[in-house]
Amino acid sequence: AQSIGVCYGRNGNNLPSEQQVVNLYKANSIGRMRVYDPIPATLQALRGSNIEIILDVPNPTLRSIASDASVASAWIQTNVRDYSLDVKFRYISVGNEVDPNTENSQYVDFVLPAMQNIYNAIVAAGLQNQIKVSTATYTGLLQDSFPPSSASFRENTRNFITPIVEFLARNNLPMLVNVYPYFSFSGNDLPYALFTAPGVVVTDPDGNRGYQNLFDALVDAHYAALEKANGPNVQIVVSESGWPSAGHDAATTDNAQTYYRNLISHVTGGAGTPRRPGRNIETYLFAMFDENQKGGDESEKHFGLFSPDQQAKCVPAPLEIVQAIVAITPRCNGDDGLVVGRGKSCGDERDGGGRDSLTSSAVSCNQNAGAQSLGVCLGGYGDNIPPVNETVNLYHSNNIGKMRIYDPDPTATLQALRGSNIELMLGVANENLQSLASSAAATEWVQRNVRDYLPDVKIRYIAVGNEVQPSDERLQFVLPAMQNIYNAISSAGLQKEIKVSTVIDLRFLGDYDRPSQAAFSEAAMPSIEPIITFLVNIKSPLLANVYPYFTYIYNTETIQLPYALFTAPGVVVPDGELGYQNLFDALLDALYNAVEKVGGQSLEIVVAESGWPSDRGTYATVDNASTYYRNLINHVPRGTPKKSGQAIETYLFAMYDENLKPGDETERHFGLFYPNKQPKYQITFG
C-alpha cells in the first residue's frame, strides 16, 4: 500500500533541522522519503522512525565508486550497514539525471560501474532482498514520445542507457524516473497536465490506448523505451514529481494543489497507466520544502509542500487519500493492497475523526477530495447475521464511517448506533409509502425514528422508498411521502443536517447507446420529473443504485468483462469529447445526462448501492468481486468523465451475505463479510 513518499531536498539556508524534518514526516504519516546525499545527521535522525528511504549516491561521488570496488564497499558500510538495523533503506539511487547531452555528461562513464560496485557491496552484505539498486533518469533521455508507444531512448544516449537497463532487468531491479508534466506541457494543454481533462486527449494506436493525463503518457513513454532497450519487465518507480507554486505563469498555488491532489488520487487508485493497468504507481512527491538556494528558473525554488517554517502551503485535501478510504488486499492474489481514503475534506464540518494525513496542518484550501466518500449497506435478509451491536462494533473496528439501513428498527439498529459517530442513510420501506402520504403520519415517523435519536445518531439522508418502479402503484406515493417527510424535518429545523430523497435504479432510463444520449423512459417521466424538480428545490441529491454486474450479465455479447471490472486498458466507449474506460462511470453519467434533461443540472447523485456477488453465477466469483470492490473503492474519489475530480459518495452493497434474500441465488452473496464477521476479501478499512 503506502505508494507515496516525499523527497527531502536541502538546497536552502533556512530549513529545519534534520530531526525536525523527520518529526514532521512522522507527524503527517509520511512513510517514505528520498534523501539526495548521505548526511550523517539525517541518517541519525531516521533511526527508529520506520520511514523507508531512497538514498542517493550523489553524482560527484560516482567516479570514485566506479573506479574502486573497495570504495563502494566502504560507502555501503558507512552510509548503509552502520544504520541498517534502525533505518529502513528501500532503494539506492546511483546518480540522478545523468545525461550525455547536459552538464551531467561528465558522469556518463561512471554510472553503470558504480551501480555494479554498489550492488555487489549490497549482495556481500546480504541485503539484496531488502535494498534495490538503481539510478534516477528523466524524460530528457527520450525521443519520439508522441504517442507514448513510439518513444525510445535518444540515439546518442543508447550506448549509455541500454546496458543500465539490461543490468536492471538481469537483477530484477526497478528504474527510477523523475516525471514532471509541469516541464513537459505546452501552454494550451494545462488540463491534460493537471489531470483535469474531461476525456481522452491522446489516443495511441498501439493497443488503442487512451490518455487522459500527461503523467500517464510520460510514464508509458518510458515503459515503451525500456521495452526497446531490452527491459520489458523492468518496473518504474517515479522518484520525483511535483508542480511549483510560484515563479512562472502556470506555477500557482491553485495549479499545484490541483496537480498534487489528482496525482495522489491517481497513483494510489490502482488504475495504473494504460500500458501498465491495474496497479499502484510508487511515487515520490517533490519536495518537502521550498528551497531558496535551488539553481535554475525561479520556479525551482517553489516546489515545497511545506514552507521552511514547517507550515503547510495549502496542501491539497486529497493527500488524505494516501491514508484514507480503504485498503483492500484480496485473498485471491498476492497484491500488497491499495490505499484509498478516509478523512475530512477542507471545509466539511460533517466529517469527524482524526486527521491522519499530510493535510493535518493545512485545512484552509477549499478542495473536495471526497475523503470519507464510502459507506456500506447493512441488509437484513438473513437468519445468521450478527446482532446489531456487534455489527456496529465491526463497522467501528474497520473504520467504516457510513451505513445505509433499509427500515428503522428502534429497539435495535438505531439504538446500537447511539454515540457511534457513524453517519446514516435511513430508509423508508416501500410498504410504508402510502401511509406517509399523510402529513400527520410523516410527522409521527420523523419523531419516532429521527428526533428521538438525535443528537446521538448522525442521520445524513432519509431515503423515501427504494427502486419503486413505474409499474408499481406505490410510485404515486413517493413524492407526497418525500414532501411530508421533508416538511417534518424542516419543522424540526433539521433540513440542513438531514437530506430527504428517494432511491432509483437504472431501469428508470430508456434505451441509449452512449451516456450522453440517455434519458428517462416514457413510463418513468410522469413520476421522476416532479421528483427531480422537488430535489432541486430543496437542494437534496438523488440516490441511485448502480450495478455494472447486472448490466454486464444481461449484455455479455456486447460488453466485455474488463469494462465492468475497471480493468480495461483504455477507452472502450468514446462519447464526444469524453471517453469511458469503465461501465460504472458510463452508467452514472447516463443518469446525470437523464437528470439534466428534466431540469436537474445542479443535482448531485449519491450511489446508494453498488456491488458484485461472489458466488452462484458464471461471473459471480470471489476473484471478480474482489477486483470490482478494489477498483470501485479506488476510483470513486476521482469522479466520472462528466464530473471529473468530483468524488462520488458511494455505499458498497453489502456488509454481509444474506441467506434469506429473495431472487436469484447470487443475491445472497454480495457480502463484504461472512455472517461470522470474517472478511470475505480480507478488507481492512482506514
Key structural traits:
elongated; Glyco_hydro_17; 8-stranded parallel β-barrel; 20 helices; 686 residues; hydrolase activity, hydrolyzing O-glycosyl compounds; 17% strand; single chain; GH; hydrolase; Glucan endo-1,3-beta-D-glucosidase; 8-stranded parallel beta barrel; alpha/beta
Question: What is this entry, summarized?
Answer:
The protein is an alpha/beta fold and 686 residues long. The protein has 20 helices and 25 strands.
Q: Which assembly state applies to the chains in this document?
A: single chain
As a percent range, the share of helical residues equals 25-40%
- The low-confidence runs, each spanning 5 or more residues with pLDDT under 50, are 315-371
* Mean of pLDDT: 88
Q: What is the CA-based Rg, rounded?
A: 27 Å
The main sheet comes to: 8 strands, parallel, barrel
**DSSP helix count?**
20
Distance from N terminus to C terminus (CA atoms, Å) equals 12 Å
Overall spatial form:
elongated
Protein name: Glucan endo-1,3-beta-D-glucosidase
GO molecular function: hydrolase activity, hydrolyzing O-glycosyl compounds
Organism: Escallonia herrerae
Family: Belongs to the glycosyl hydrolase 17 family.
